[in-house]
Prior knowledge:
With about 375 residues, the protein is mostly beta strands. The protein has 3 domains: about 10-35 and about 85-220, no CATH class; about 225-295; about 310-380, no CATH class. About 5% of the residues lie in helices and about 45% in strands. Strands 1, 2, 3, 9, 10, 11, 12, 13, 14, 15, 16 and 17 form a 12-stranded mixed sheet that branches. Strands 20-23-24-25-31-28-27-26 form an 8-stranded antiparallel sheet, with no helix packed on it. Strands 4-8-7-6-5 form a 5-stranded antiparallel sheet, with no helix packed on it. Strand 10 (about 105-115) and strand 11 (about 120-130) form a beta hairpin. About 30% of the residues are buried.
Amino acid sequence: MMEKNNIILSIIFFGISTFHLLAQDNFSIPFEKLEITETNYNDSLISTENILLKNNSSDFLIYSNTEKNIVEVIKNEKNKKVSFKIPFHISNIDEQKFNIIDSRFITFTVTETHGGRGLFSMYGEFYIIDIIHSSIAYIPKFSYSEYWEITGHNDSLFIDECNLDIHFENNELQIKRHFNLSWHNNEEDYQEFLESGKYIFKENKFIRTHFFNRKKNQYTPLHRINDICVGMPLDSMYIKYKKVQFIDRSVDYFDDYIFIHPSEKAYAINNFDFIISTTPGDLPSDRYIQRFFILSPKYNIQGITVDMSLEKIIKKYPESKLYIDLITNEEYLYIPSQNISVFFESEYHNRIGIYNNTIEGPATKIIQKKAKAIRIEIGE
């Protein structure tokens, strides 16, 4: 029997691609239903020579149907065989790269080449078939482009190259992306593609749960508030919150404490329950959510809420450390495993911790364990 275990999809992007994805945003990879070709497949029509892949329990197989010139998934359903068309020409599929993952998923690569005067391109797409739901999803795998520019008697060759190293480890699909750009060099032109991170399979799609923090060279949990999260385009947030209030300010401080850089733009959500800041940009589609400022206790972030005591937070996250914010002069508890900063109201005369004559921290001793959190900040 096929198991319904969750699987994690991890993606590290080091490159650029020119693919158009099925994904509606950078935070999920949806699956689409495969087209049914036969509802009661006749076993006598299956030629052993044309079987490209077969699982050990014979629950399903990949079959090259030479009569119809298509590749099919044939699986057992209620004591009969049902076939589904894989929507690619046989010649485009690398027949040696079909793999079965976790007794449920089939993965393979599809390649295409294009050529013209002064231009050569080759593309690869990595596909995932969910056998249980008879559906398919894909992500970019590689892109290679050559462009020749003839100037006088000299030829100039420009190359854009992107490769993804893909392998499974401990039920995770890990992808590392490498690129070399000499033709297109503006990464912002490719913001529509999936961001680095981990994706967990849930509700018939891969949902992003972590992003890859380049500064710390590690995966960091992606925290969501009502389906919006850090890294999301501003126009996607408008779909969820149609009446967001833009905070127009002429100084760097908002509400005495929250620091928002002049290059950022800030928006209040749900009557100032929480505030977001975005990266610079002229249009909503150009700006991305950069930080959350959570002010209301009704939002629970990994078991932490505003008004929770410092003592309870440390008990839950003993690795956290207390610091002084050199801009706002507040003290905050940083939780590295969650990339969360929890702020407390304090001044020079009312410190929560002892810092041994250094303001850079962390605190060497905590003297006000009952101090209440006033704000939670989440950012890259």
